[in-house]
Amino acid sequence: MAATAQSFDILVIGGGPAGMAAAVCAAECGARVGIVDDNPKLGGQIWRGESDHQGKSEAAQWAARLHRSRATKLCGIRVFHQPQAGILLAEGNDDLIELRYEKLILATGARERFLPFPGWTLPNVMGAGGLQAMVKSGLPIRGKRVVIAGTGPLLLAVAAYLRKHGAQIPMICEQASWGSLTAFALSLAGQPRKVLQALRLKRDLAGIPFIPKSWPVAAHGQGTLDKVTIALPGRTETIPCDYLACGFHLVPNIELPMLLGCQIRNGLVMVDELQRTSLPDIFCAGEPTGIGGLELALVQGQIAGLAAANQTSIPQGLFRQQKKARRFARGLDRTFQLRPELRTLPQPETIVCRCEDVPFSRLRQHTSWRAAKLQSRCGMGPCQGRICGPATQFLLQWNPDSVRPPVFPARVESLAAITDHSELVGSVVTGGQ
Amino acid sequence: MLSGVTVNVNGAPVAVPQGATVAVAMAIAGVPCRTSVNGEPRGPLCGMGICFECRVTINGIPHCRSCQTECAPEMKISTDE
Which CATH superfamily is domain A4-111+251-334 in? Predict the structure, then answer.
């Protein structure tokens, strides 16, 4: 299959807040900008369903600015390979695209961390963000009972959203302790915007039991979820429900940065204050540099966009916001550390690799991700270890392996084009003789 | 709902809200998206196109992530049974 080529001064990978902010700022400087996302619409996770540029929300305002900026939007496009510097190969639903760039901004965001426990593979057990995404995509939730469990501020945001749309929420189970949560809350006291957010959440969640130091131990049901057992301080409780929204905070999507060769430390892409990675002409903004939420994504996206467009005078205000947002990110990291008890949740027969149905008992014996993969097929399925990787890293202390193309599942005909493509590029470089 | 879309799940018509994804159509139809290696029913987990648990065949094309696909009128959706 022949690839269609598109060339940009600045190519942004990821259409969430960081990517949108980067694309806007770069395009407003006059650069020819392309922004790529796998989803059918821009917005990423937190702004899912808000890419309509007619509203008054912050998301809508950025969407409107992006629309006016004339940046090229490429939705439903998945990057899977870098054949050489300055070019990325990507796939749409029925086409192959070669994306050429002078500068690259990686804004690939984060995904939820899933931890296995008995019954977690039952239909209607989903991530917290996962269930929210489904509701935003039209899933009826009015009158349904949803237990929310796991860790992280996402649980509260999801609870508020689901309740607003008519869900009944018997309980929110946060594995962090009251001590960690209080310390975190106090650290936010000096930031009016955060205090306001917290007060709004408190009002939106009034009457819903919020239980720190609690976690799911089992999901039950015949073919589909009907109840969940929760470990609470001093007791366990089994709660009938229609959905379990369960996620253990976020892990950064660093696969593409790794494939490109960006320096990574502690699972995060290393960047300087201009969001430059270790590779020339490649920038990274948002969650892959550290899980820090919306503010961090927006400020880093703006800095990356301006820096990539060679703006020499970036407003000092942005750097001040960047520092504050980084402090918030460190607080998040500290507060929502996973407790060791969660390592005891999976039973020997609990499926850990969902793609290949590999149970915990078949993984425990291995000392590395690679050995387990070769012996059991764990990580060889379509998720490419994105779901089971963070779980096994926590459960068994395996370090992640190197990343190889395709960095996302791609059609055979797209992969076959890789050879064609390098021949094509070779002939262009040598003048086509 | 004033306007909606009708798709076809394993031969049966399913009405969904305008703009709904195929994963939502599966949920409304009460049909699990796929069957695991050991025969367990599975549905969407991550909701964002990463886990592939939601994959179904759409208009003859297999391994489509239903959570990433908007329903279109008369779309033919089938599971791996």
Answer: FAD/NAD(P)-binding domain (3.50.50.60)
Q: Which residues of B touch A39 (CB under 8 A)?
A: 48-49, 68
Please name the amino acid found at residue A363.
Answer: L
Domain ranges for chain A:
4-111+251-334, 114-248, 340-396
CA distance B26 to chain A (A): 10
Assess A165–B contact: CB distance below 8 Å, yes or no: no
Q: State pLDDT tens for residues A261-316.
A: 999 999 999 999 999 999 999 999 999 999 999 999 999 999 999 999 999 899 99
Q: Give A426→chain B minimum CA distance, Å.
A: 34
Which residue among B42, B48, B49 sits closest to A123, beta carbon to beta carbon? B42
ipTM for the complex?
0.97
Q: Looking at chain A, which residue has its C-alpha nearest residue B17?
A: A138
**Domain at A114-248, CATH homologous superfamily:** FAD/NAD(P)-binding domain (3.50.50.60)
* Per-residue pLDDT reduced to its tens digit, A165-222: 999 999 999 999 999 999 999 999 888 888 999 999 999 999 999 999 999 999 999 9
State residue A430's pLDDT score: 39
pTM strictly above 0.90: yes
